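Let's practice the habit of predicting before peeking. Look at the sequence and jot down your guess about where helices and strands might fall. Then scroll down.
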Amino acid sequence: MDTVEVQNEVFLPHVVALVNEGHSVTITARGNSMMPFIHDGRDSLIFSRIEDRVRVGDAVLAELSKGVFVCHRIVDINGEKVTLRGDGNIRGTETCTVDGVKALLVGVVRNGKTVNLKNSKAWHVYSMVWPRLLPIRRYLLALYRLVVMHKLPQRWSRK
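Done guessing? Here is the structure:
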């Protein structure tokens, strides 16, 4: 199978259009902002239309500004303002409006197996616990990269 890389600002509006028509759309994860659960290039993300309303803890596809999209977790909703943070981020947040939240992450495909996030008890526990670990997330992510991914931080490597 051939693969084609398309810029997000070109591709993701088409994904949003399909989701708005009621389709579920699967795309390959890009970037590390949702580690440790979602990995760049390894996992595929399944997005669907938001049926009800978004809630704190939901992982969503959001448009921050025209053509700028992220898949991050909602950490706060204050009126029309939605605050997002990637699970792999130790500081910094992004904001958008409620209308900027375009799709809900409902599944992850890893190694040919699909995890249905709506029915996964493990995902629900992870979604509640991981955001609360922000003060120690830096150390947990470093340990994860070291032990699971076998990657030393660049500043530790010999030159």
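How did you do? The mean pLDDT is 90.
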